[in-house]
Amino acid sequence: MVCSPTVATRVRIPFTVEANYAGWRLDRYLQEKIRRLSRERIQYLIAHRLEAEGARTLKPSTRVTPGLSFALLREPEPEPDTPQEFRVVHDDGALLVVDKPAGLPVHPTARYSANTFTSLARLRFPDRKVDPAHRIDRETSGLLACGAAPEVTRRLKRDFAGGRVAKTYLALALGVPAEDRFAVDAPLALTGASAVRVRMHVHAGGLPSVTGFEVLGRRTAPDGAPVALLACRPRTGRQHQIRAHLHHAGLPMVGDKIYGPDEAIFDRFTRREMTAADQERLRLPRHALHAWRLELPHPETRTPLLLEAPLPDDLRAFWEGCR
Fold first, then answer.
1. Does 180 participate in catalysis according to the annotation?
2. Which of the four pLDDT bands, split at 50, 70 and 90, describes residue 208?
3. Residue of 99, 137, 159, 278 with catalytic role
4. CA proximity to 256, closest of 229, 286, 280, 281
5. Is 2-74 a domain of CATH 3.10.290.10?
6. Global confidence as pTM
7. Does residue 57 register a pLDDT over 90?
8. Strand, coil or helix: what is 153?
């Protein structure tokens, strides 16, 4: 089921500054949060589309402080279609873990407001404050852990930040891994070297980033390309880490518009101008990454939990279509 509501009034996109951004200029903070926009566009939005709490005036040069809240306003327009249902994997009243479908954004963005997981969760659980404790990309499917009350969410976030949560993803990659088990230890950074603003690069000045990989199967796609099914275990939590590390290892993810055969495909995708040739090269309409397992202590009882979400139909069908 999909939905594309038209909103009658301006859409508010809320922001609350996190502690690690203390002292940043406001325009730099927003450019970090909305990386597809230029600095000039960000400064225009601050001047004309920003609503601050308490009628406070904020400028591009304003130094932000933790807890500062404001919203950007955008004109109403039909939102892109997204899945409107998600499966509950675990719910004990405090901890809620869902199997998020591919295509559903977790949080509101410049393009999505009502059609997000957080908006759907408010409708489905009106008596609880469901808040995700971590992020997964819009195209990534799989497990998303949430607290059902603010204090629970804070404990969950501390567990993720403290390395007490083990995450395992499944990915379909193009190529022939030389070993059944291997690791990529390569620092990642946003360098500005790509036309795609959100693309991470292996860079000596980047943040330490390590991912362990295990080959679960090797097959051949109908077009003759070698395909590997991989279990991916990120030991750090950088943006696009698994995708960037697979690209660095010469094993690009199936369906990846940024780290796959040509990053220009991502630009055409954002402009809704993808070609049939683009789709053929990608092989799948979304990147083939699925959040498969979570191992974590329960945020209240501290009892160890192991949760799984099976490979979704689209990725399973592609894998089973390989020989």
1. no
2. very high
3. 137
4. 286
5. yes
6. 0.80
7. no
8. helix
